[in-house]
């Protein structure tokens, strides 16, 4: 992807983020009302995996790929999680505004997630091969769908993986062992995984192939911004 296209991509995502907030602060409800407050927080969290993915793409020492990759994976569900905020839609005279606000937020979250997965995939493809890169895509999207369920139904946050890992693992394993007992979480996981995966494939098909880069990690151009 050319530098101009990268600028347009980032600018578009910043614009949709801003549009979500503008629709909130110009609402008939007081500015910074409940929907706008949680959108500020959730949108900020949705940008974090993109930042970690960018770091993953440019880090020179492979030893740093694991910790940066784990941080990216821990925050990745925050991006598609914005789709589930549609549950807060209210029926009132400003319904059109709320549909637009929630819809733009969901769109922004999905695209942020796709971009971050693509950045990580490109780096893995370059270092470990195309097959490994696609395996990483499938695994990360699957774990992301599980993460959305953990956040929406079990109400855990990304940092709870560090502060309360045992409790997060226990509640998640309880669901994973009996998925048919928890119909709504299982249905949400399948829906998020399918939608996120299809969104990734759609945008992946539009991205031009990346030019070959030197395989030697010590080469000056081996690691650079051209991972999109």
Describe what you observe in this structure.
This protein is mostly helical. It has eight helices and no strands. It has helices at residues 3-25, 34-58, 65-75, 95-128, 130-152, 160-163, 165-177, 183-206. The longest helix is centred in the middle third of the chain and has 34 residues, at 95-128. The N and C termini lie close together (5 Å). The model is unreliable at 212-225 (pLDDT under 50). Pfam families: DUF1361. Keywords: Membrane, Transmembrane, Transmembrane helix.
Parts with pLDDT < 50 across at least 5 consecutive residues: 212-225
Portion in strands: under 5%
Helix and strand element order: HHHHHHHH
What structural class do the secondary elements suggest? mainly alpha
Task: Provide mean pLDDT, rounded.
Answer: 84
**Sheet with the most strands, sense and barrel status:** none
Could you estimate the helical fraction of the residues in percent? 55-70%
Label the overall shape. Answer: globular
Instruction: Count helical runs.
Output: 8
How many discrete structural domains?
A: 1
Quick one: how many beta strands? 0
Rg over CA atoms: 19 Å
